[in-house]
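Hi again,

Forgot to attach this to my earlier email, sorry! This is the prediction with magnesium ion bound. I've pasted everything inline since the attachment limit keeps bouncing my files.
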Amino acid sequence: MNTSLHTILGIESSCDETAAAIVREDGEILANIVWSQMAQHAPYGGVVPEIASRAHVAMMDKVIAQACEQANMSLQQVGAIAATTGPGLIGGLMVGLMTGKALASVLQKPFVAVNHLEGHALTVRLTNKVEFPYLLLLVSGGHCQVLLTRGVGDYIRFGGTMDDAVGEAFDKTAKLMGLPYPGGPAIEKRAREGDPRRFKLPLSMVGAEHGDFSFSGLKTAVLRLVDSHRPLDEKTTADICASFQYTVGEILADRMMHAFKRCEAMGLKNLPLVVAGGVAANQFLRGRLAQVAKDFGAELVAPPIALCTDNAAMIAWAGMERWRLNGWGQCDVLDTEPRARWPLAA
Ligand code: AMP
Ligand code: MG
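Structure tokens for the complex follow:
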């Protein structure tokens, strides 16, 4: 192993994944352990904060030990410690952040407090070596926003959701049709057999002057549709899934067109469009977004699916980028507090 390169341990616990990873300065992922709590939350159709916190406490040390084992390194050999500090569920954040700060203190290593959203935002620089600036669509279970990414810690927010996140809309829609949690993969699977044009659903915010999104009207429309077709047969379920997914695609496409135009007005043409977050796993939506990017002479870039959903490699990498900018010195003080809310840009 090349020991002259810097390495960093990343810790993630902001939602329902307990994760640890070790990443090297040149972008080599030496270890990437994700322990998903999905099974614990599935009976409730969504993440239960108290269950999440307790599961993080139970698993955190094991996940870190596994990461060290996979990388064939001891904690002493790691150069710095990065931990997700927000935004997210406060109980979970406390578990990962306290662990990270305690390790940094005991091992006398630099500590980096990482914004979870910045982890998602910078992953493509780890996996695809994308240069700044780029346009970012972040779509996950808890987040939905469009950002112009100009550099580490340098973002302009073009818009975000006014109500539900996209993943949340998938999860809630699936739940009201009686489909399993998480809803995204379940809906995508059924949508493949369905007719996307059978039901016309509201294209909320399409054509709006601002850059924001809204998905709650769409969810309510699906609820009415489901109620008027009970008991749902396989065909109708598939058609509702396809119509819902198609509508989400049209909304995302329109909002990204708005963002591309705004970039062009700033003199920024052909910026790569980066999509990240759990919803980026959806092949139909990826296809629709690739089309929009092409219309603006741009390319769609998405990290591998395993690095789109919550993981600690992205936290380690965002920590690495900040640590490097700090001249490989101390980054954050050890009394840094967790932040349930922590916007990337004003
Ligand atoms: P994350 O919040 O990044 O951990 O991602 C989880 C969210 O992504 C959940 O809301 C899932 O329903 C959603 N998701 C996962 N796979 C898909 C998919 N294939 N299509 C749409 N949403 C998805
Ligand atoms: Mg998650």
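Residues 15-17, 141, 310 surround magnesium ion (ligand 2) (CB under 6 Å). The first strand starts at residue 7 and ends at 12.

That should be everything now.

G.
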